[in-house]
Amino acid sequence: MPAPNDLLSVFETVIGLEVHAQLLTKSKMYCGCSAAYADAEPNTHVCPVCLGLPGALPVLNRAAIEYCLLTGLALDAEIPPACKLDRKNYVYPDLPKGYQISQYDLPLCVGGWLRFSSGGEERRAGITRVHVEEDTGRLVHRVDPGGAEESLVDLNRSGVPLMEIVGEPDLRSPEEARDYLIALRQVLRYIGASTGSMEDGAFRCDANVSVRRIGDPEFGAKVEIKNMNSFRAVERALRFEQERQQAALLAGETVAQETRGWIEDRGITVPQRTKEQAHDYRYFPEPDLPPLAVDESMVAGVRARLPELPATRRSRIAADYGLGPNEAALLTEERAVADVFEAAVGPPGDAASARVAANWIMNDLVGLQRQRGLPPETLPLDADQLRDLLAALAAGELTARAAKEVLPQITRGERPRDAARRLNLLSLDDDAAVRAAVDETVAAFPAAVADYRGGKTAAIGRLIGETIKRTGGRARPETVRAVMEDVLRKDNG
Ligand code: ADP
Ligand code: ZN
Ligand code: MG
Fold it and tell me: Which of helix, strand or coil describes residue 227?
């Protein structure tokens, strides 16, 4: 059997992703119940509509429609002037109505692109459509105290607004699929449509994958993989499936079109259902909701809410502030972090100070953020605090070393300079104190002093470092160097 690398010259992998994202609305899709189901007691966020009681009538959640349109606009989709909702019928215990209200042939958004970077290259992949639908309830399987297995139904999630983003089969490798997902999640977070959290189930992905011989005009039979709950799991599942299909084709077998489930602990996919067992959802127009007219003023209103999107912001920040692509990508990963950077640095000007700010954010602030378990969008300092810190560093009022010591001790809303004063960590502007520390160092390190005087001038680095240490990091390196050179010269002579 050829090695995996050789297989990539024989076969091409084709991937298209279907993403379900929970929309950040307060209430559910077709009723007024709270959509915050995560921490609620089971079956407390329910009403006749989301319980599917006979005769209850749905009312469309306008905020959900707007989030879906916002997503479509962010992806350069077409917004047709009219769309409708459809019933998707199937039977399952977590679906009390016996159908989901979704969209079939006339979705809210059609076509479009996602721009993303993968393997150091800027790519774009087609979007087929974006539509709204509702979530199902949840089943909790457990063993009761008497040892019997039972399944409990929690309908708090029933009717929670979801958006489905169907991607074109434009992706060509598992890594590219992962990078597409990361970029899509970032767009949804930037526009505030969804938290995009895979762990919380607010961002779920079904991955379709097929393999064909290079040069084949037709795609191969596609396998849909379900049950991945991390980006890594999507990539691993796709890689497993890519290799399984390649092996089948090499052995002269055909790949069956089917749905398979990813088993995380075993690192494999297993068959779930074949094409013959596929559901017939008997879609038909939802009779309880009229078709929805999406007029130009509605689209314009939503378009006005569109922020600068990640790909654009990434390249603009790189160009404006003279940062590298990786730095710009890190700084713009979260919209709120990019906001802090731009607000603290101000309009583009001096590239050196922009870089200092970027480094403080990416190393120290993000480090402290992780240490404190803060969410990725929340830095430990706000823009005003960071601006004050950068100003103090630039003016020499704080040494970098002292600033690192002050940083974790700054209280909420406190100016870093005030914190440094409180902690007695402001730079020593008192020459006498620096001179005293230099004298102590010179007395304590005669060998380094002799080296320096003997012509090994690099030895001064050690002496400067020791002096700074003696001042608790408060002496500025330039001041210490000047005083030290002065002392070494004078005492020599
Ligand atoms: P279905 O009729 O099963 O819903 P669609 O054609 O609507 O299939 O596609 C569903 C998803 O599968 C889309 O994301 C699409 O990009 C992807 N897809 C379709 N055909 C293939 C294929 N041959 N290989 C990989 N992905 C595919
Ligand atoms: Zn309800
Ligand atoms: Mg389809």
Answer: strand
Domain span including residue 81: 4-301
pLDDT digits (tens, 9 = 90+) for 220-253: 999 999 999 999 999 999 999 999 999 999 999 9
Give me the residue label for tokens 């994202």.
21
**218 three-class SS:** coil
From first CA to last CA, the distance across the chain in angstroms is 80
CATH label of the domain that carries residue 468? 1.10.10
Output the CA torsion 347→349→353→359 (10° steps): 60
| Residue owning the nearest CA to atom 7 of ligand 1 | 166
User: What are the pLDDT digits (tens) for 176-227?
Assistant: 999 999 999 999 999 999 999 999 999 999 999 999 999 999 999 999 999 9
Residue of 170, 208, 224 best suited for mutating to test ligand 1, as the one with most atoms within 8 Å of CB: 208
> Ligand 1, atom 17: nearest CA belongs to which residue?
16
SS3 150: strand
Ligand 1 near 292 CB (within 6 A): no
Is residue 49 lining ligand 1, measured as CB closer than 6 Å? no
Ligand 2 center to 280 CA (angstroms): 27
The span from the CA of 344 to the CA of 346, in Å, is 6
Instruction: Check whether residue 170 and residue 274 sit in a common domain.
Output: yes
Residues 150 and 292 in one domain: yes
Judgement on whether residues 187 and 316 belong to the same structural domain of the protein: no
Element (H, E) at 272: strand 268-274
Give 16 Cα–ligand 1 centroid separation in angstroms.
6
Beta carbon of 281 within 6 Å of any ligand 1 atom = no
Kindly tell me if the per-residue pLDDT of 94 is higher than 80: yes
Q: Is 210 in the pocket of ligand 1 (CB under 6 A)?
A: yes
Which of 283, 301, 319 is the endpoint of a domain? 301
Which ligand 1 atom is the nearest neighbour of the CA of 17?
14
φ/ψ of residue 78, rounded to 5: -85, 140
Domain count, the chain: 3
Determine the distance separating the centroid of ligand 2 and the alpha carbon of 108, expressed in angstroms: 23
Q: Which ligand approaches the C-alpha of residue 53 most closely?
A: 2
29 in ligand 1 pocket by Cβ < 6 Å?
Answer: no
Handedness of CA 381, 384, 385, 390 (dihedral sign): positive
Last residue of a domain, one of 382, 397, 422: 422
Cα torsion at 471, 475, 477, 483 (round to 10°)?
A: -90
Query: What pLDDT does residue 493 have?
Result: 47
Q: Is the CB of 283 under 6 A from ligand 1?
A: no
